[in-house]
Amino acid sequence: MPKAELVGLGELRTAVFYRRLVAEALGSAILVIFGCGSAMTVDTGKAPTVITIAVAFGLTVATVIWSLGNVSGAHINPCVSITMFVTRKISLTRTLAYIAVQCVGCTGLGVEILATFVLVLAIYASCDRLRSDHTGSVALAIGFVVTMDIPWAIQYTGASMNPARSLGPCILTGLWDHHWVFWVGPTLGALTAGLLYEHLFHQRHFVSRGFKSRGDHNTRTREEDHKEHQNILLEHDD
């Protein structure tokens, strides 16, 4: 891997730099809310276990890497960013900016909005055909995101993330209290995630600009990007 510029002030003039900062802040927020949230409970009779916490944290990190790794590298940890700087993988400018937004990324939204947001973000990332860093099962990856969502969200809303899934039980039981939450929350979360990925994180914003899909190193060429675009167009025509 080529060494990054030591200071890297030139990055401040690129749109990609700020896309990466948004990705790091978002990834850090997801880690704190879903990871730490899995260790908290509003019902003393349903205390989390070490296993559920470990699974939630592991799947949260995997979800962030899967969804945003192509944008910023998905460090979501100042220690990782500092080490990357010391070994000349990223510049000082990006290191300091990453650490700042990683710390700022500790915020929260409505449970259903956020749970569905993360799910749809992963779906869009999985369906981004310009990405070359996804070699595993898309279906399994999306299923793992649902698994990651549940330990934190289930104690508050049941972790629906799907208006239709919530509608069925309401029809059968006749219980409609706060049913609107399961329509408004997932819808807003899904719309936000889809629009954010399409206009900020989609791989088309990074190809033909000298960035490889991991989002960290200047190794791709315009010829490689052009060839990749042509292959995708040929597959679409078939």
UniProtKB/TrEMBL annotation:
Keywords: Membrane, Transmembrane, Transmembrane helix, Transport. GO terms for cellular component: membrane. Coiled coil: none annotated. Pfam families: MIP. CDD domains: MIP. It is found in: Membrane. It is a multi-pass membrane protein. Its main location: membrane. Residues 213-230 have a biased composition (Basic and acidic residues). The chain crosses the membrane at residues 20-42, 49-68, 96-125, 137-158, 178-197. Residues 212-238 are annotated as: Disordered. PANTHER family: AQUAPORIN TRANSPORTER, MIP17260P. Belongs to the MIP/aquaporin (TC 1.A.8) family. This is Aquaporin. It comes from Batillaria attramentaria. The lineage of its organism: Eukaryota, Metazoa, Spiralia, Lophotrochozoa, Mollusca.
